[in-house]
Amino acid sequence: MIQYHEIAIPPRSEHLWRYTPWHRIHPTKVEEIPTSVPMNFSIGIDHEIESSEEIARNFIHNTSSVCKLVELDNESTELEIRCSGHVCSGELKIVSKGNSSLIIRISGEAGWSGLRIFGSITGTFSVAIINDLATDSHLLKCEDWLVDRDSELEYAGMSSGGFLNKSDIRINLNKQGASFRGGLASNGHGSRHDDNHVEISHDFSNTTSSLVIHSACDDSSHSVGTGLLTIVEDANGSDAGQVFRNLLLSEKSRAESIPELEVLADDVKAAHGAASAPVDVDQIHYLQSRGLSEGEASALIVEGFLMDAFKDIKNEDIVSVLRTRLLVHLECLIRG
Predict the structure, then answer these.
(1) What is the DSSP letter of 17?
(2) Main-chain phi, psi angles of 32, to 5 degrees
């Protein structure tokens, strides 16, 4: 098994660590592997998954004392992950067959949390991952999803908790006919930092992917969205696209969006785009003229903007849960 100390610390020139370098997301000194508290998983059976040569995944693997397996076969369920203590970590393996769905909610007041997820999809699988951590928590989340032949992964992520968040999400469409449809929404407030890195690999012909990332940034918050879309040689017939949109609600807020394409096949469709814009002052004034406060008007605009990231998500139960959690979060911000 590869040990953490055998892996070189990645430089900031590396795409993944450009905006949130490894030393910033590490819970202690980069040389140390601290003792951690195991995450509390509400469901799942004890399991083991292999280590990794990637530094973040390897670090979580070496600090974690708990790994759970969740197997789904034409069923829907919810998973609560509770984080506590100074350092908390855990690993999760998901095996889905048939037509299944899973809602994952991450909560707690841990100073630092590390979560590694490995998913294997056969059939149609819808998943929502909601970050509801305490406002001073740090989160490192690494995900690897393997989508089988003629199978579909529908992914929705909502990030409104935590202070410093780093997510590394990788989707591998490794058989013909595999598809991915994803939406990510991040709400920045205070001096919150949210960094989402997504890599999608089309390794076979006739695979499809669609990714939308929406970030709303207020106060002095900072949102980062980076994506790498790869279509390998001979993966003809692939259809892929990704769009990053940012809504800036204050002059001090910042947002970076960097979608990238690496297309090695000839007969494909591939597109990407990014846009950032301030909130429409006329919309705020209009809503205030209808009796809303400035905070309520801003929250209503943010809700519509972030929920639009999930417009292509077909699972209505997942969309409903995401909207409810977002409304609760925005209401808490309004009340201060």
Answers:
(1) G
(2) -95, 150
> How many Å apart are CA 169 and CA 131, to the nearest integer?
14
Measured CA to CA, the distance from residue 271 to residue 67 in angstroms comes to: 37
Query: Residues 326-335: contacts with CB within 8 Å, 24+ apart?
Result: 326/158, 326/160, 326/185, 326/187, 327/303, 329/132, 329/160, 329/161, 329/187, 330/187, 330/299, 330/302, 330/303, 331/299, 333/189, 333/295, 333/299, 334/293, 334/295, 334/296, 334/299
**Rounded-to-integer distance, Cα 167 and Cα 181, Å:** 18
- Is 314 in a helix, a strand, or coil? coil
Q: What 3-state DSSP class applies to 322?
A: helix
Domain with 234, as residue range(s), is 4-335
Residue 83's region, left for phi above 0, alpha for psi from -120 to 50, else beta, is beta
Question: For 207-226, what is each residue's pLDDT tens digit?
Answer: 999 999 999 999 999 999 99
CA 327/CA 46 separation, integer angstroms: 35
Whether this model's pTM surpasses 0.85: yes
**Euclidean distance between CA atoms 271 and 5, whole angstroms:** 39
Kindly report, residue by residue over 148-158, the tens digit of the pLDDT.
999 999 999 99
Q: How many domains does the chain have?
A: 1
The amino acid occupying position 95 is: V
Query: Mapping DSSP to helix (H, G, I), strand (E, B) and coil, where does residue 60 land?
Result: helix
Burial class of 138 by CB neighbour count within 10 A (0 to 12, 13 to 18, 19+): buried
pLDDT of residue 336 exceeding 80, the answer is no
Rounded CA-CA distance 309/212 in Å is: 6
Q: How far is CA 283 from the centre of its chain?
A: 29
What CA–CA distance (Å, rounded) separates 199 from 210?
Answer: 12
